[in-house]
């Protein structure tokens, strides 16, 4: 993590804290307990991507932050909080399924849970033991919010707590209902208002949903597009999904957003791309921020076509892989006319292919020129972060 500024900076602070950690470590076999926790941290760390930067491990928690100027979409932090939890839950579930060990550690993995605190405020970057760390009252407040009464009030042991300071800055207050708001009296800080969202529900939604992903080996409408850009996968994901950016590189006159969940773009959201008098509806079906997004085009005669934008970290940037599946389904007439529909789609997309690719590259290059933090960070492994604590 680097910063050229020396004064206070505005940032979002994200803490992923494993609850039940102390009890688990004290009551189970140390060798197996250590391996289990390393696996869980090993799932959390790679899930935290740019513009979030990992500051380090704080005992049983991962502390990350993103400077306000680096957060390009207002819902980014909420999306990634859910994704971080799902990475944790997926790792824990795999351990429970794949182990045949009857030791106390392996038998009590289910007692470990994750809570995520999100706060916003000011901080300064300071040098400590050759490392750069964050300091300031709002950093302290974020950690103080870990000690709360959410479990007693709601019964939740896996949740996302977002301070209203962060919520106002993201302009996402409408996403939460009134019964999700609480206040907490924080020692030496005062009363703070926040919202709470059950992360187990987010996991159950994703766990139970079928992945929709156009694979390279499937029957494609045309060859895969491989577009190298010089920004991080998270920034590339934003370029592919933010309505104004998508309109720009597609060369659309405008994009209308329909079905957004109180302003939050997610599966089920519909983009209406205007190209002259023509409108092309594109519905988000499945996505993992920073990894891929799959959408569906609803075509005439009941035909549908899926498009996947996959983000792969390579070298000093990201490879954006765009794949269009061959149109399928439809009524009898649609199935008879599939060949003609494919020809029509190619006549629209192929002549504009290079223009779309160049516009997408230009968007990413301009972002990077304005803000070097959009470049991919060198990934840290768990051992490196644990070593940094010592």
Automatic annotation (TrEMBL):
InterPro entries per the UniProt record, alphabetical: Nucleotide_cyclase, START-like_dom_sf, Uncharacterised_Rv2561
Superkingdom, taxonomy of origin: Bacteria
SUPFAM superfamilies assigned: Bet v1-like (SSF55961), Nucleotide cyclase (SSF55073)
Protein name per Swiss-Prot or TrEMBL: Guanylate cyclase domain-containing protein
Organism annotation: Falsiruegeria mediterranea M17
